[in-house]
Design brief:
The protein is mainly α. Helix content is about 85%, strand content about 0%. It has one helix and no strands. The protein is rod-shaped, with a radius of gyration of 48 Å. The termini are far apart.
Length: about 120
């Protein structure tokens, strides 16, 4: 079953304009797609730069946190030493006060001939 009869194709001016518009639209879409991809690549590069900056900031915060920890440890050690000194001085002062009170009481008792 062979059908070798010639086919006549008629394209009107309106149809030709529609076909050309459709082709132009495809080209425009392809160009727009390329522009969009290029813009997304630039945006991705900018995000990578921002990520790198955030990494640097994180590193600086870590260094700062370490310095703060060291300073806090040193300050806590100094406060502990100061507290120990204050405790020793308080106990020494209380000891002297109690010894002085006992001595005064002894002197008073001896003075009143109670001893």
């Amino acid at each position: 079953m062979e059908n070798n009869t010639p086919v006549k194709l008629e394209i009107t001016q309106d149809k030709l304009v529609d076909l050309l518009m459709h082709a132009a639209t495809r080209e425009d879409i392809a160009a727009l797609r390329q522009e969009t991809n290029a813009k997304f690549e630039r945006i991705d590069q900018k995000f990578e730069k921002v990520d790198q900056k955030f990494e640097k900031i994180d590193q600086q915060f870590e260094k700062l946190d370490q310095k703060i920890d060291l300073k806090m440890e040193a300050m806590e050690a100094r406060m502990d030493r100061a507290e120990a000194r204050m405790d020793r001085k308080f106990f020494a002062a209380m000891s002297i006060t109690i010894a002085s009170a006992i001595a005064i009481i002894g002197i008073l008792l001896r003075g009143f001939h109670m001893f």
